[in-house]
């Protein structure tokens, strides 16, 4: 008598389902060797939060801040926050994802995407950078 497929394939049971799930391997994260914690607790606030705080908080003067951004054609540029265009239909509008940093006119960087610095809300790695003198 010829063997049917039902005879050759073992039935799936709860036990075989458990063992097949337990064998799955989770990918490892790349090593974060910069010495700074990488957790959900130190997420960097977006540039829009920083810009809105500078615009609406009376302790800041918007004309004292400069935004560094990447232009698609001209590379890295800077523009004064006072001349910043937030209207999407404006020709000079710059999308938030192109903002690299925000600095004071005295040169002090108050927000930097690459270094994850935020000196306005102290999000990202700002607290670790400001307290680095404690580890020396």
Mean of the pLDDT scores?
79
Largest sheet: 5 strands, antiparallel
Structural class: alpha+beta
> First CA to last CA: what distance?
81 Å
Unreliable segments (pLDDT under 50, ≥5 consecutive)?
A: none
Strands of the widest sheet, in order across it, are 2-1-3-4-5
Helix count from the secondary structure assignment? 4
Q: Tell me roughly what share of residues is in helical segments.
A: 10-25%
What proportion strand?
15-25%
Number of strands: 5
Identify the overall geometry. Answer: elongated
What is the topological layout?
Blueprint: H1 5-8, H2 14-22, H3 47-56, E1 65-71, E2 75-80, E3 99-104, E4 109-112, E5 117-118, H4 126-130
Antiparallel strand pairs: 1-2, 1-3, 3-4, 4-5
General description of the model:
This protein has 136 residues and is an alpha+beta fold. The protein is built from four helices and five strands. Helix content is 21%, strand content 18%. It has a five-stranded antiparallel beta sheet, with helices on one face. The N and C termini lie far apart (81 Å). The model has no long low-confidence stretch (mean pLDDT 79). Residues 15-32 have a biased composition (Basic and acidic residues). Residues 1-14 have a biased composition (Polar residues).
